Amino acid sequence: MANSNLQFKTNYAVSSTIEPFYKGGKVQISKDEKYIFCTCGTRVNVLQIVTGKIVHSIEQDDQEDITSFALSLDDEILVTASKALLLKQWDWKQTQCTRSWRAIHNVPIASMTFDPTSTLLATGGCDGTIKLWDVVKQYCTHNLKGSSGVVHLVEFHPDISLLQLFSSASDCGIRVWDLRSSQCVCVLQSHYSPVTSLAFTPDGASMVSSGRDKICTVWDLKSRTARRTVPVYEVNSHTLLSSRVVLGWDSLSPGVLRVWDASSARCVFAQTLPSAPPAGDPRSLTYLLPLPSSLRLATVTAEHNILLYQLPSFTTQQQFVGFNDEVLDVKFLGKGDTHIVVATNSSQLKVFDLATSSCNILYGHTDTVLSLDVFKKGSLFVSCAKDKSVRVWRQDPDSGQVCCVAQGCSHANAVGSITCSSSGPGGPLWMHISPVLGMPISNVLIIHDVNSLAVSPNDKLLVSGSQDRLAKLWSLGAPGADLALLGVFRGHRRGVWCVQFSPMDQVLASSSADGSVKLWSLQDFSCLKTFEGHDASVLKLIFVSRGTQLLTSGSDGLVKLWTIKTNECVKTLDAHQDKVWGLHATRKDDRVVTASADSNITVWTDVTEVEQAEEQAKQEDQILKKQELSNLLHEKKYLKALGLAISLDQPHTVLKVIKAIRQGEDGAKQLEKTVLKLRQDQKESMLRYCAVWNTNARSCLDAQAVIQVMLTHLSPEELLQYQGARAHLEGLIPYTERHMQRIGRLLQASMFLDYMWQKMRVTGAPAR
């Protein structure tokens, strides 16, 4: 089928992964502006801003979800609260828990914060109480009662000499607590819905509060009165830039950042988004976090994306995707396959740079993107979605930025599958992709519920796989012409999920919900081979190794490598916990990317040559060691020979050395001397070998000789410290008893023979 010199692949290894690191909840940035802390179920993940990598993951031992956390202002202490009502103090740089204590709250903690000195910790509970903790002396200093409902917001006044704490609960008021008297000295009333955030001016004289009632209030903290109310049409979060307020809009313009002059209540700047946001746009903001030292601003969106903007231009600097949800498709992108484009259970497309993990979020579709494909040159790709549209995107090879260059909206229903011609767009873009994207495919969809499409390497054939358990082969004519049905492939027992042409031979492969993969002839439409091994639906397949092998992914979360010639499953790759929807290989055929419904994206590297080189080096090393062992035995250097044989893990060779020692001059003493000079790990191996040798009558004497030396010179306590010593010694007992019984019978028989010999008289001997 292919070049006989072709190297079959035998294994892939994980080279990198893109995992969810933020699933909602609190986000905090370290004081040095190098790390982002965010919650993800039972973990607090620490994201390094420069590299985009998770450098620390702090997880609860009790596997309970983290409800809140706080990082001290000196970046030294991290405290987490879980549903188990435990507070844990962490040395987050070493990922070690230094202290844990009961939270005293009767219900989970909803909010917490440190004071400016990093010595006091305030926790607000769902029971309406606030407790203050001295993290240095380790005791509870205050128990503040009086809030109504969940205390979802606590903040210390920036001037620690005032010893004031601000809190907000479900009653929509902002309570001011005097920590000297432990009394609520004032309730600031202005909002009619829960307060979402508080921000103080640098001098501490004023404060701005925002709520879900679509207003921001500027407070004079000296007189404790509202200085001005700014209607901002529902804002979730805000932060202060000198005397101005930056707001994240949720109602009129989702995701738009606006700057308001607090003194005049006038909007002085509004951010311009690349595309007009539709209703319910996922760019809606939930948090704004300032990075004053580097003049940046971090925003957290409703879809758990974290975006960093450079001030004062508000240009996007970095984008991090906290949670991908269910990943539906993935493809390599770029001239050297340096990026991947990902379609998730969302209207957004995400383009990741594999080197830095930075992300470019693409907006354009208004409903879930279902399928992707990339043209041969790698800089153009297409997407289709439930919004009945198809979009063509282009990546700039220098900057890596992606923009939409064309759009098609002729479909009457959701577009579920898409494919590109193998030759790529060589002229007008729509002319070349119209046989795949235009009305002829719409006509096919009416009679054939398509799950997958593929174009042959010569761009003359199109194959479609559908839920009706059939794969159909079509002839592609001139652009805009109707498709001609050439044949039907029948044999699957359930719907066909994926179809692919071989890059080298006149065959195609199909995968089905019946758990099988079939190879078909394009000449007579007959089934050539069937591959069975998945326990569930086979969702995707690709040809690798120039069409001589297949990679398949299934609903069981497994990826399997098959050799077509032998029908053998060479390797099973297990890195996902749910359906693997996405599977794609680079043009060099040296890497593979998989994407799953578990929100994980894994990049695999072909390690066949590396493993073969390692195996060859190992074999050469074994040969050299065997030769060295032979030389040591010849020179009667038994200690080195025994150590080398043990390092090779060859029990038979070790036994040969033991026999050689025992058969030599003064064998017992030489054996004792040699065994006692071994290291502990070598003695552990000897004990393991003896347990095996003792099961055979031919080698039991050698085993007993070694055991005698060890039992004579090692105390029971020392022996029991050896790995598996108890099991090995227990295994010696029954076989040793059996050998003793056998030796006893032999001794009795030999004594009987000796007696008979003494009593025998030689026939014909002369009498005396």
UniProtKB/TrEMBL annotation:
<feature type="repeat" description="WD">
    <location>
        <begin position="489"/>
        <end position="530"/>
    </location>
</feature>
<feature type="repeat" description="WD">
    <location>
        <begin position="102"/>
        <end position="135"/>
    </location>
</feature>
<keyword id="KW-0677">Repeat</keyword>
<dbReference type="Pfam" id="PF00400">
    <property type="entry name" value="WD40"/>
</dbReference>
<dbReference type="InterPro" id="IPR019775">
    <property type="entry name" value="WD40_repeat_CS"/>
</dbReference>
<feature type="repeat" description="WD">
    <location>
        <begin position="450"/>
        <end position="476"/>
    </location>
</feature>
<dbReference type="GO" id="GO:0032040">
    <property type="term" value="C:small-subunit processome"/>
</dbReference>
<dbReference type="InterPro" id="IPR020472">
    <property type="entry name" value="WD40_PAC1"/>
</dbReference>
<dbReference type="GO" id="GO:0034511">
    <property type="term" value="F:U3 snoRNA binding"/>
</dbReference>
<keyword id="KW-0539">Nucleus</keyword>
<keyword id="KW-0853">WD repeat</keyword>
<dbReference type="GO" id="GO:0030686">
    <property type="term" value="C:90S preribosome"/>
</dbReference>
<feature type="repeat" description="WD">
    <location>
        <begin position="531"/>
        <end position="572"/>
    </location>
</feature>
<dbReference type="InterPro" id="IPR001680">
    <property type="entry name" value="WD40_rpt"/>
</dbReference>
<feature type="repeat" description="WD">
    <location>
        <begin position="573"/>
        <end position="604"/>
    </location>
</feature>
<dbReference type="GO" id="GO:0000480">
    <property type="term" value="P:endonucleolytic cleavage in 5'-ETS of tricistronic rRNA transcript (SSU-rRNA, 5.8S rRNA, LSU-rRNA)"/>
</dbReference>
<protein>
    <submittedName>
        <fullName>Transducin beta like 3</fullName>
    </submittedName>
</protein>
<dbReference type="InterPro" id="IPR036322">
    <property type="entry name" value="WD40_repeat_dom_sf"/>
</dbReference>
<feature type="repeat" description="WD">
    <location>
        <begin position="188"/>
        <end position="229"/>
    </location>
</feature>
<feature type="domain" description="U3 small nucleolar RNA-associated protein 13 C-terminal">
    <location>
        <begin position="626"/>
        <end position="760"/>
    </location>
</feature>
<feature type="repeat" description="WD">
    <location>
        <begin position="144"/>
        <end position="187"/>
    </location>
</feature>
<dbReference type="Pfam" id="PF08625">
    <property type="entry name" value="Utp13"/>
</dbReference>
<dbReference type="GO" id="GO:0000472">
    <property type="term" value="P:endonucleolytic cleavage to generate mature 5'-end of SSU-rRNA from (SSU-rRNA, 5.8S rRNA, LSU-rRNA)"/>
</dbReference>
<dbReference type="InterPro" id="IPR013934">
    <property type="entry name" value="Utp13_C"/>
</dbReference>
<feature type="repeat" description="WD">
    <location>
        <begin position="362"/>
        <end position="393"/>
    </location>
</feature>
<dbReference type="InterPro" id="IPR015943">
    <property type="entry name" value="WD40/YVTN_repeat-like_dom_sf"/>
</dbReference>
